[in-house]
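Methods — Computational structure assignment.
A single polypeptide chain was analysed. Its primary sequence is given first, followed by the predicted tertiary structure written as structure tokens.
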Amino acid sequence: MSDQVKKSEYNAQGIQVLKGLEAVRKRPAMYIGDTALRGLHHLVYEVVDNSIDEAMAGYCTDIQVTIGEGDVITVVDNGRGIPVDMHKTEGKPALEVVLTSLHAGGKFDSDSYKVSGGLHGVGVSCVNALSEWLRAEVRRDGTIYEMNFERGARVGEMKEIGTYPEGANGTTISFKPDHQIFPDLVFSFDTLRGRLRELAFLNRGLSITIKDERKDKEREELFHYEGGIVEYVRWLNEGRTLVCAEPIYINGEKDGIQVEVAMDYNDTYSEALFTFANNINTTEGGTHLSGFRAALTRTLNVFATSSGLLKKDMKGLTGDDVREGLCAIIAVKIPDPQFEGQTKTKLGNTEVKGQVESLVNTYLAEYLQEHPKEAKGIINKCIQAALGREAARKARDLTRRKSALDSAALPGKLSDCSSRIPEECEIYLVEGDSAGGSAKQGRDRRYQAILPLKGKILNVEKARLDKMLNNDEVRTIITALGTGIGTGVFDITKLRYHKVIIMTDADVDGAHILTLILTLFFRHFREIIENGYMYIAEPPLYRVKKGKKEIYAFNEEDKDRLAEEMGPKGVYVQRYKGLGEMNPDQLWETTMDPDSRTMTRVSIEEAADADRIFTILMGDDVEPRRRFIEENATQIKLEDLDI
């Protein structure tokens, strides 16, 4: 090594100590997941969670969330108000301690909150650290107190700014996220609405209002459900034919653990099961989910056998059989929950499994005995699922045998890429042979595969797995992906392409085909979406040309702007009716070239909302679909992602 190169020394001076909230600003993703839109909205949830904890403690009945101009968020509740008296050990007001100290809050004191969601005590202090400014107003003991902060640092002292009438206690937190941390500082009303609606369902009797005051975006909604999670199941099942007229409701408490379950069966072939612990959406499940599943399988098998409904030649019902068509909410409230990681997506308390299992066993067995008509409907639904599972197994075996006999196991219509490294490979699911032909000629064969699809694929919302496996187009997609399909078979690690791109025409038929493909992936390949592997291509709608200059436009506004910029004379505008009208070079340049294309990544932010919407749009019931279209037609828009 050259003597001119200075070696870095590792000593005490190289150890950096981040004080106060510096660590949060330095590594924000450690605390809120990321600094993209998901992390931005997480700030609101952290503040709202404090108000929800007051509601669970019995002190808050109303929460108001407002998105103001400049994307300023204001959260108001009518709880007790954050304490403002001097903290004994910190020597400053408790309000300041809560807003500036990590792992500080009433959640660690069982006398203040028997049950809470914000267990780590970093929530609102993280919001403060990652905000350009934050203002806290507390209404407590007849006095209104105010404290201001900038990027986590206090600005001035806490001050009294007035009084309020009796019974108007509460806390108001207003903040503007820091643009230095969040490059895309625009809140989504729909994203916040989904989480707030969920919280209202989970806390019966609580009123939550969300209001958007931004110019041209004015909206307001109120959520209040006296029926709690029973109403949640009804809402999720809109548009479905139900087995039970009213959802089965189970509620009990043991050793300080509160368990609530609401469930019903419907005519679909998919499972819609959502779990919560202290209002936290545990998307990865955990011990409460394990307990519920074990109890459900055991109880239904015992009843099916003892009642004589189970056929003699059947070995029994599997977990998949008893969950087909099931819509259920499992919500537990625990004094000392143990979550896996700061994101709190999986519950780890071992004692919860036994509590949930015991409670569901007891209550569900009683329900089946007391409701013979509904019990028979549930068992028959499970038996049909078992028969379908066996038919699907035979269809899979037949497909495998055909593949083994075929020297080219991949579909004949698939034009595969030469690379075998999934991380660099992408497959286009293309509408029609004409567009498929152009895509095959225009692609980069090294890493781009093309799979043309003929017509509209099967609507899997109305089909069981065995019927799907007998559909040529669906089977072709399954074979091309390489993951297999179904419980115990699907394996995300075998996915052959890490970009699965849907490319359809920009017309009504194209939109329908797109929805059919999305339904297939949402119901049977959800992990592909959850891992960020699914995209929607966005081909241009117009080609605007004048002389030798031509530019592509992706919407009406772009087309009109380009035509005006090019001048009033000699401008030629071509409207593409379909992908097949583009020659290979044009398709590559506008839609397939990674350096210039625009695509939308498909994501599932709110699984419950997505599940319900797919049922409404793709199910048999026309009235909910018509109502949904009428209510949302003016709200539809795509957020583009350049890739």
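Note: The mean pLDDT is 85.
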